[in-house]
Amino acid sequence: MDAVRVALLREVLAGTEWLGATRRFATALRSSVVPHGGGLLLVGTEEYEPWHLAAHLVDEAAWSGTPELAPTLVRHGARASDPPHLAVGLGRIEAARRGETLLVVAPGAPGDPLLERVHDARRAGATVLALSSGDAELHGLAHEGLAVPGERELDLDTVQHLVSAAAGENVVARPRGRGRSLRDRLSRLADHLTAPPPARW
After folding, report:
1. pLDDT band with cut points at 50, 70 and 90 for residue 201
2. pTM of the full predicted structure?
3. Do 19 and 123 form a contact (C-beta atoms < 8 A)?
4. Where are the alpha helices (H) located in 48-175, listed in sequence order?
């Protein structure tokens, strides 16, 4: 990791408690998605789909040996003709039950239709997590929430990368050479922050 990337990462994290906050949220996420459970459902708003978070969680699931972290991306505009991993619609939230986790990412207002589905999923026993700009209704429904108020230091997109990296941190010590340290993850985050936007997942 070169000096420019280190400086950028320090600027992002300096004087904030975001590293600790994202780690606590990631711990709640990781502990809610248990092996042999119903899995992790990831949904955004009608205007925003968390493609990058889905991709990074898939990577972290593979790297950390925690397959339950790989999410099912639930889409507002899913069509039957879409590839299988992109064809899951909002009806999947309505079917959520105990043992499943619903992670809602909302940079803006989630909208009443989504909130109603989230409410129903929680009543059915699903664990609800919210990562948003601080929508009060959404966070009122969530078992655990992380609000990103759009401060200069971090935006919601960067926080999603921190959360996914922290979620993949190894809970149990792994054989030497197999684990990925926080340093590795921060290096990867710095690479992301200085790279051009990736192609759509």
Report:
1. very low
2. 0.79
3. no
4. 51-64, 91-94, 112-123, 136-141, 156-167
